[in-house]
Amino acid sequence: MNILAEIIGYVAGLCVAVCFLPQTLQTIKSKNVQDLSLVSYIIYCTGVACWVLYGLYLRSVQMVLFNLISLFFASAILIMIIKYKRKK
């Protein structure tokens, strides 16, 4: 495979993987989940978990690695939504 394509794949994967980092940090700090959709995060986490499984099937390190990172941050937000919405 072309080295430029590999670099683009890693940059794209990294961008997608860390896109939830700011939201995760903000939610940890503020504990405000009022405007976050529980259903949306459940669907997103399910989809990303499927991408991880698909990546394992394809033996794609990029797909597995970056989707696991995405799943970590999105799951953290999902857990906070469940935890903090229940308290109100």
Q: Which whole number gives the mean pLDDT?
A: 92
Structure class: mainly alpha
3D shape: elongated
- As a percent range, the share of helical residues equals over 70%
Contiguous helical run count: 4
The total of beta strands comes to: 0
SSE sequence, one letter per element = HHHH
The unreliable regions are none
Mind telling me which CATH architecture this is?
Up-down Bundle
CATH topology (level 3) name: Monooxygenase
Q: What is the fold's blueprint, element by element?
A:
Blueprint: H1 3-18, H2 21-30, H3 38-58, H4 61-86
Helix pairs in contact: 1-4, 2-4, 3-4
Task: Give your account of this protein's structure.
This protein has a single domain, classed as Monooxygenase, CATH 1.20.1280.290. It is built from four helices and no strands. It has helices spanning 3-18, 21-30, 38-58, 61-86. α1 (3-18) runs parallel beside α4 (61-86), α2 runs parallel beside α4 (61-86) and α3 runs antiparallel to α4 (61-86). The chain is elongated and about 50 Å long. The protein starts with a helix and ends with a helix.
